[in-house]
Design brief:
- 51% of the residues lie in helices and 16% in strands.
- The protein is of the alpha+beta class.
- The strands form 4 sheets. Strands 3, 8, 9, 10, 11 and 12 form a 6-stranded mixed sheet that branches. The protein has a 4-stranded mixed sheet with strand order 2-1-4-5.
- Helix 5 crosses helix 7.
- This is Reverse transcriptase domain-containing protein.
Length: 384
């Protein structure tokens, strides 16, 4: 029965796509003809195409059940305390009502305020918790909201690759963290090898976004929070910023936010205001590498470009609500730049000058002879 249902759902989607393409082709053929009688047919075809597109945009019952199947059965129960496993086991009993509510929320925007309420909760990362950094924040969301959010995330997953540039490798299907790591290491290695004094030097900026998820401003969202104190739910807060940890939609919302900075850098590069960096003459130009909130920028080491980058960052920070922790950020220069000029450029950023970054995307940038120091962190995490 499950196989038949899945096959029927795929056939319905495919049939809709065929009908849509057929109507589009018919509309193109009509637009090429100058006959008045045929042009009267154009309005009817447009209306039929609008109906098909609306059907294609609607969510179906199979998508709701598929969202529950993809969720972890015992991870983060809802406000009512019922885990996903309950809905999976008794789908034959509650499935019809749950699907009806989810579809009304997705297609008609009903019950949004009712289901968009969650309880923040702290869970320990280790046995003996001593600091706030030893705990992880999660949100206990309504199970209906989780289903709706997962369904939207599944649809975004299909198209996000066409929206987000190749410089961003986080949460995108077909892209890996190792892609950015290898490109970043090659660029930093080439940056340190450039010693030709006839040309201007280059620099790279490693930016640390402070609490990136928590500072993203989404004032149009209708989420509300309550807190569990002494086993009772108390208070109601409506935040003006922050993405919920554990929400399937949060990674994609953050990528759309980070796309603003990526688009500004790409536009500046096309206009000739941002040079970027080449590992060699035949290589591709690298302007920036993003992995979620981890940012690595490459450009020429000039005051003009530093001011231009700082201006773009200012626009992005003002629009998104994020802030850069300049104390944890660093700048690296090619060898041909004098130490006095390095200090001048570093003052523009008010950040430390380093010969190389200790780590990029958790991986060490430089491997010394002592492998014990290099892998001590991995050993510590395994035994923890």
């Amino acid at each position: 029965m499950e196989d038949v249902r899945e096959a029927l759902f795929k056939w319905t989607c495919l049939s809709l796509q065929v009908d849509i393409e057929s109507k589009r082709k018919e509309l193109v053929d009509i637009s090429r003809d100058n006959d008045v009688i045929i042009w009267n047919r154009c309005t009817k075809v447009e209306q039929e195409l609008d109906v098909l597109l609306k059907e294609d945009e609607c969510f179906f019952d199979g998508g709701c059940e598929g969202s529950f199947i993809q969720m972890d059965p015992l991870k983060s129960p809802g406000i009512d305390g019922l885990p996903t496993d309950f809905y999976k086991r008794f789908w034959s009993v509650v499935g019809e009502d749950v699907s009806k509510v989810c579809l009304e929320c997705l297609n008609e925007c009903r019950y949004v305020k009712m289901i968009n309420h969650s309880l923040p909760c702290l869970i320990p990362k280790m046995k003996n918790v001593e600091r706030m950094s030893d705990v992880r924040l999660i949100n206990l969301c309504n199970m209906i909201y989780k289903c709706v959010s997962k369904a939207l995330a599944n649809w975004l997953w299909k198209v996000i690759d066409f929206v987000i540039a190749d410089s961003q490798s986080a949460f995108i299907p077909g892209r890996l963290i190792t892609d950015n790591a290898m490109v970043g290491f090659e660029c930093m290695h080439a940056l340190r090898r450039k010693v030709n004094g006839k040309k201007k030097g280059f620099m790279s900026l490693k930016l640390d976004m402070s609490k990136a998820y928590d500072r993203v401003e989404w004032c149009f969202l209708e989420v509300t929070y309550s807190f569990i104190l002494n086993v009772k739910i108390r208070g109601t807060i409506k935040p003006s910023r922050g993405l919920r940890h554990g929400d399937p939609l949060s990674p994609y919302l953050f990528l759309l936010c980070a796309k603003g900075l990526s688009s500004m850098i790409s536009r500046s590069e096309r206009c000739g205001d941002y040079a970027g960096f080449w590992c060699d003459r035949l290589g591709s130009k690298i302007t920036h590498l993003f992995f979620a909130d981890d940012s690595l920028l490459f450009t020429r080491a000039t005051t003009k470009e530093c001011v231009n980058i700082k201006r773009m960052l200012g626009f992005h920070l003002q629009a998104s609500g994020q802030t850069i922790n300049f104390r944890k950020s660093a700048v690296c220069f090619s060898k041909q730049i004098s130490s006095s000029y390095m200090k001048v450029l570093a003052e523009v950023w008010d950040m430390a000058i380093v010969d190389y970054y200790d780590r990029y995307l958790v991986l060490p940038c430089v491997a010394s002879r002592s492998k014990r120091i290099l892998f001590d962190g991995i050993k510590e995490r395994v035994w923890r």
